[in-house]
Specification:
Strand content of chain B: 15-25%
Largest sheet of chain A: 8 strands, mixed
Distance between the termini of chain B: 55 Å
Distance between the termini of chain A: 46 Å
Strand content of chain A: 15-25%
Helix content of chain A: 25-40%
Shape of chain A: globular
Helix content of chain B: 25-40%
Structural class of chain A: alpha/beta
Largest interface: A-B, 34 and 40 residues
Chains: A alpha/beta, B alpha+beta, C alpha+beta
Largest sheet of chain B: 6 strands, mixed
Structural class of chain B: alpha+beta
Radius of gyration of chain A: 16 Å
Oligomer: heterotrimer
Number of helices of chain B: 19
Strand order of the largest sheet of chain A: 2-1-8-7-6-5-4-3
Number of helices of chain A: 5
Amino acid sequence: MPKLIELADGQARWAEDAFVHVTDEDAIPESGDVILSLARFEAEGDALLSSNSRRVGVRIESDQEVEVLAYDLPRIAVVALAFPKYRDGRAYTSARLLRERFGYQGQVRAVGDVLQEQAGFMVRCGFDAFEAADGATPEAWSKAASRFRHVYQRAADDRVVAFEERAS
Amino acid sequence: MYQYDIIDKEFLVDRSNEFRGQVARRLAGEITEDQFKPLRLMNGLYLQLHAYMLRIAVPYGSLNPTQVRRLAEIARDYDKGYGHFTTRQNIQFNWIKLKDAPDILDKLAEVDLHAIQTSGNCIRNTTSDPYAGATAEEIDDPRVWSEVIRQWSTLHPEFSFLPRKFKIAITASAKDRTAAKVHDIGLLLRQGRDGSHGFEVIVGGGQGRTPYVGPTIKQFLPTDRLLSYLEAVLRVYNRHGRRDNIYKARIKILVAALGAEEFARQVEEEWSKIDAARADLPAAELARIRASFAKTPFETLPARSEAFELAKANDSAFARFVRNNVRAHKQPGYAIVEISLKAQEQTPGDATAEQLEVAADLAERFGFNDLRVTHAQNLVLPHVKLDDLPTVFAALQAAGLATPNIDLISDIIACPGLDYCALANARAIPIAQDIARQFADLDRAENVGELKIKISGCINACGHHHVAHIGVLGVDKKGEEFYQLSLGGSGAEDASIGKILGPALPADKVATAVDQLVGAYLSVRTDGERFLDTYRRVGLEPFKEAVYAQAD
Amino acid sequence: MKAITANRLIDGDVVFWKSGQWVERFGDAQLFDENEASDVEAAVATGKGQPTVVVDVYPIDLIESEGRWAPVSYRERIRALGPTNELTHGKQAEGGDVVEALRHASGAARSTGRVDLIRRK
């Protein structure tokens, strides 16, 4: 199985990736966990989920809004947010909304042009799984995500903000 | 002034270490230039024509003597002995080496300076009134809010990869010295009818290829809701700003495309969903920040200073300096002093290491350790005793910092232009010098009065030519440097975008054209009218005729 | 005639291709005539394959000036010389014939190599 960097208890580690990305053209495998495009999920997601035998994830492109998933989120195991180019910053908003507005508890996965230099921002916005495009190891990812002892603003993570540190 | 605490200081050290690591990875080939470029831009490092340029943040234009002396050191040790102040109150060094940048950031961090987010598609330096804390006009000290925004916007994880750059300006006085209305967000501090404070929020102002005076998106935003509202604006922009075309990616394009009303509605809708308790700044933190801008320990002095009056009477140069460069202070016996970086034959906005040290000394000895940068590329000592003014003037004179031309025709804003900038089409500095030379006669310059000339070497408009009384835009016409003039722009509270005068002129005709425009103005102005006022009364035609009617 | 220019990564300095090396002075640059177009291409490709040495590699067009060759575009002449507002800064401070020839050159169009670079970006 391909490997994925996963964040658990603040630590990044390798994990076996049980999910298969299924393109719109491919047949959906008979069994096993799948990640579908939003369009495909809207068409066939219900059927897959009702079988209860597998987990289903949805891939959201950078120009798609996560709000459309709001109703289905409790049943979705993974939301994969795409970075077509690392400097397309829309997925950061999507991740925060999933976590903070919709209380999403499943896996928020970064896919596409995912680079360790942006690890810190991703972790703060609530991503907890990463298909790194630059050969990053979990160690490199952890290091990159922990460069700053302090943060100035609240986000989707549970880091203590500077003004809270000051007040304590 | 805001004092960095251990958290702020550790943040700068961590940032500097991060960049050191990124530079090492780049030099080792572990990341590509395409991947590295935004990282170095977010630390203020541009690759320009001759070397790297480092843009150091001067948050809301405020510096203390320790910081200024460190900048002088960096100018000497890592550059060619000078720095350049910009239209966003920052300072730039033109001759930096990439391999030195990590060391420079370390040295800056030691004195609470940095280059964080002075470039890149993120929230840039928040600029404010250089007279903050000194002018009687202000409703509240805008530096408090500037510092609030500075911290909130620093390494904001959601908003570090916006469609394009994002610039915020805050003003709290009726007279706008920040060009707030041509910023992505302009915050105008207002007093509500019940005495409470709020911001009139302007969104979608801008210059560049498509200049706009920004519309008011929210008439009165209570100040304690500032950060949640900014979050709403930035989120709408991050999601819906265009990413397909860098020339259409600023928020002004989104606001114009949706219309101000619809844009405001989308922001309100997003804002209503944001948890204020989590997003807005706690009152305790606001109070902590406010306390650091607490009262300057002014002495109680009479409004009139005999030493000052005597010097004015006896020294006409001092009198002229006072007329043009000195402004009223809220505290009796004090004054605001502008330091012109627009001396004849010098590069506008440049200061040598020696000049920086003089400014630091003066701020320390006579100015409560307070020095400001204006968006017109000049410096300000905001709190000087009238009694001390003759001494300060003498020191400025000796250092070539006493040119008495603030807001006059030779107080020209000019971007570095094609002499330095990889983006430029034409040079700006020699044009500024030509014009200043034409009006070297100080009596003549004073007679002309307030006349704001701004020169940009390309359409990116870093010289703010769109909001100039006379704007000059360098264009490339078949490989030759040509200049398009515009009239009637203003970056002040009466903001307006200038109108193009006519076909672009060759470099050697620009100063003459300005002369002709001034002549046209002088021939029809009525009492007390500035150039801008006369233009607004008589329109473009008389000026167009003055420049283009002659057979050339 | 053409030459090839780039910026050195480590210090941002303007450099020119010369037989597989990068030199700092335009006067030392390798010149390519009309028949050597493929050599120009090859050299540019080599330069682009050295991302830890140079960035922004592109060919520039030259024009004759005082018996020497100079960049046709004034932007490239400023890059080769230094800023016009401070003649003691940049490579122009060295003076000499090459600097004088560069100063006195005049020419129109932007270098096509530079235009292509911007388009591709």
